[in-house]
Sequence to fold (331 residues):
Amino acid sequence: MSAAKKVLVVDDSRLTRMIFIKVISTNFPSWDIAQAADGASALAAVEHEKFDFISLDHNMPDTTGLEILPQIQSLQPQAHIGVFTANVQQILIERFEALGATCYQKPLDERKILQFVNEEQLV
Amino acid sequence: MNDQILSDENCDTLNELFNIGMGRAAKSLSEMVNEEVLLSVPSLQALSYQGALKLFDGIADEPINAVEQYFDGQFNGNAMLFYTQRSSQELVRRIIGDLAPNENFGEMEQEALKEVSNIILNACFGCLAEVLNCELQSGVPSIANGDVSSIFRKQRDNLGEAPLVLSLSMTFSLPNKSIEGQVSLIMTSESIKKLVRELERFSSLYAM
Fold:
């Protein structure tokens, strides 16, 4: 039984946040889940609270995941960050990987979310 | 403006499905032009036929090229990808490069535009079908030129009733060259109801 963790889901799509929350809360009922619908809310959340897992979208109304990833990493060095994006061009994936984040192609499903979570759990 | 054709939740779901489809299309496009394709955040509107006419008249006051493709399955309709003529010429030039003859939009350019639009529209259909777990077939793409109103009027004539329009505004651009495309699904109200049923069935899987 894993210890309770904190998860932040950053995505402007309500659907994506809903899927993420459903999968996490079903598989890990004791975990806390916070959500942010844009980059500004995400940065406000990471300034005030520590997270174990952060899922990050790329295309958002006010910024991109690539722009705010370094800030999030500096504020949350302990967090395992996964980029869940529809924009899966190779050049973009390489930029995220150069920053140490793993990319997962949307659409989300349970397998991808659990892979993201378990990757870190196994380390 | 949503005209209450789709609930906010269904609009959000459809917006995200199109976003995923356009992301896949951008990957294919970037491989074709060997450059990064920049995508804007998509915005979906569900509109009446009259509302769509007003919207398009406001944003495209120049002649357009539209690629039209029929889709059929659990729900059906016509998908259209609109470009201003400038955008379509630029896009085609980037794809076929030196092969483009120095003349106005000729047969080779039209074929290239159909092909790239086929990739974009099928990425959208493919994503809808995959995520909603249904089957959608698509027809052969064709090109329509002219002003938006006349192209829409033809759609109305074909469907035999005032259609409803799901309009996705999303800009994709290549470095230093803005190429704008707008995807619209033109459907009968009966077909929209079927789509809504599929969206609600899907959303219910993740309801808390």
Observations:
- Chain B has a mean pLDDT of 83.
- Chain B has one domain: 2-203.
